[in-house]
Amino acid sequence: MNEKKADPIIETKDMTIRFGGHVAVDHVNLRIEPFVLKSIIGPNGAGKTTLFNLMTGQYRPTEGNVFLKGKDITRLNAVERTRLGLGRSFQLTNIFPLLTVIENVRVAIQSRKGFGLNFWRNYLHFSEVEDEAYSILQDVLLEEKWAVLASALTHGEQRKLEIAILLALEPEILFLDEPTAGMGQEEVPAILEILQKIKETESRTMLLVEHKMDMIMTLSDTIAVLQEGRLIADGDPVKISESDAVQCAYLGGGAKRE
Is this structure's pTM higher than 0.85? Predict the structure, then answer.
């Protein structure tokens, strides 16, 4: 297994955002080391998705900073942060419904390689891109659906496709915001399998917001816990599960969707 580095790949310092008089994220200091899977949990309204938005550039903080490999990226927007290697999924599925499954992935590869519209017209001359797209579909258990319109997929399959699109962009850091949101219980194990496989490659850092605690405890190297916008605990799954503060704030309080 890769040796964990002392320096964080991404870090927040005193990260704070206010909406009017409401403090949604309150001076959060979070360090994420390379090649770990870190989960962020907390009760309804704790600020988990808001923190994701601050780290990935959808929101600008009221106070504080975010650093990527030691570089202050606070003033960079979401597109600029994507170019630096941040990949983000959302609670709502974000795909191209009128393209086929493999076309969705191929467009992401084209974007990464900078081929543009001219490449779109001549994609059949670039079989390596088609092969790469199919390989990614195999990684997310969608290879048999390669020719199906994305709109015809089940909700769970669309979530898999969204992960495939992210992988096609080759981000260093994957931000996964409730990847099992809206799924039936029977669909969840497939997502768990996909994330476990990504983790085992030891090639990406992963941040996960999720409410399914069995999934969190199975996948996570470390877990950060938010309550009312504040970071109240940060450690390995055993430490977090044994924390009285966490039990009171979250685990024993009945999790709700944020």
Answer: yes
